[in-house]
């Protein structure tokens, strides 16, 4: 069982690596939702108090979902580079 709804979506199955562990995903879904579906809701920890951080708004507004992709900090729920399988 995974966190996806059967019959919705359907991009090619792909795998990417997040925090040194493989994540099964579908091309075209956001990194945030791929991680959520894989049971990986914690994206980082606060530099201030170490509290776990993850998706909050899923709209690209709050910046709680910041992650590093190829050395670039992005919001993994929204915007450039946030889609699985997207180039650059
Ligand atoms: S969850 Fe708010 S910007 Fe991504």
Structure write-up:
It is a single chain. With 88 residues, this protein is mainly β. The chain is built from one helix and six strands, in the order ββαββββ. A two-stranded antiparallel ribbon has the order 1-2. A two-stranded antiparallel sheet has the order 3-4. The protein has one helix at 31-37; strands at 13-18, 21-26, 44-45, 52-53, 66-69, 72-75. It has one domain (13-75). It starts with 12 loop residues before the first strand and ends in a 13-residue tail after the last strand. The protein is globular. Helices cover 8% and strands 27% of the residues. FE2/S2 (inorganic) cluster binds at residues 55-58, 60-65, 75, 77-78.
Helix/sheet category: mainly beta
State the domain count: 1
Q: Helix fraction?
A: under 10%
pLDDT averaged over residues: 89
Reading the helices and strands in chain order gives EEHEEEE
Strand order of the largest sheet: 1-2
Q: Give the bound compounds.
A: FE2/S2 (inorganic) cluster
Counted by DSSP, the helix tally is 1
Outline, from the CA principal axes?
globular
User: What is the number of strand segments?
Assistant: 6
Percentage beta strand: 25-35%
């Amino acid at each position: 069982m995974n966190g996806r709804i059967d019959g919705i979506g359907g991009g090619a199955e792909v795998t990417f690596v997040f925090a040194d562990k493989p994540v099964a995903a579908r091309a075209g879904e956001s990194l945030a939702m791929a991680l959520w579906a894989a049971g990986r809701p914690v994206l980082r920890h606060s530099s201030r108090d170490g509290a776990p951080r993850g998706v909050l708004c899923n709209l690209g507004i709050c910046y709680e979902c910041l992650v590093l992709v190829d050395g670039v900090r992005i919001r993994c729920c929204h915007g450039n580079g946030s889609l699985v399988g997207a180039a650059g």
